[in-house]
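Data availability (excerpt). The following record was deposited with the supplementary files.
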Amino acid sequence: MTTPEVLKEEFIGGRRSLVVAGTHGKTTTTSLAAWVMDQGGLNPSFLVGGLVQNFAAGSRVTDSDYFIIEGDEYDTAYFDKGPKFMHYLPELAIVGNIEFDHADIYKDIDAVKLAFRRLMNIVPGNGRLIAGWDSPLVREVIASIGQRLFTQVETFGTCEDARWQARDIDCSGGMTRFRVLREGKEWSEFQTPLIGEFNVRNCLAAIVAADAAGLDGIGYREVVAMVNGQLSESALRDAIVVSTRRYAKRQDTWFRNQLRTKPSAVSHQQATVWALDATRPPEALANKIMDRWNQMADG
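Predicted structure:
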């Protein structure tokens, strides 16, 4: 029996499950959703692929009806090549973005899109699919399902055609501030210590999920400002450099062949670009990091 199967049978079954999926931002968004729903009084169980600083833990089990889990698209086990998130019985599902990743599991972008399409198809009619509308591939997958999609779709992003929109993003003064519009009308204002537009999207996804769970946005507006998960700019830049160096030192032939033929196989290149944009490091450092990506792609 695999770990995802144990989670389904022993912890998730019979609860209202929120599955947080997408190529980037899963851990942050899962942490945000768990914190907001906890402070909103729902006392959820959760499992996050990292340490949630507000809880000083990566998981907990409560007697709540809610279970919030990070949904990974990586395979379940060597004998079960389906994505882990297919086991998590989503009533609510967040798909923040879709890009090519995990080149050792997925042969091309079509295989990745198929995995996420299957996740979307198991969200029930009384549930909600919370879709990152800034991601072209999320739009594409939902469009490919069309009228066959069983559930309701809540779109979010910084684009003008999302149902939930983040506007007037201001990252000055040590906090990121933004307005939230729903269907073009003012809904609320938020601030967070998390930096960058990509983290505004993460916050917005958690806000939409909390609304879908029945929480009042005004009631948890200050909760988002209390999120304690950010790195300092220098720490984040250091993490980017270390991550890049690790990739550069990979010596196995398969990985190098993938880089020669599929530069997009380098995991989280887009996330690195977002992080650079958020931290605005010195130009020389930013150029050095992106030059390293290009060198890796060239073999």
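Summary of structural features: The longest strand covers residues 45-52.
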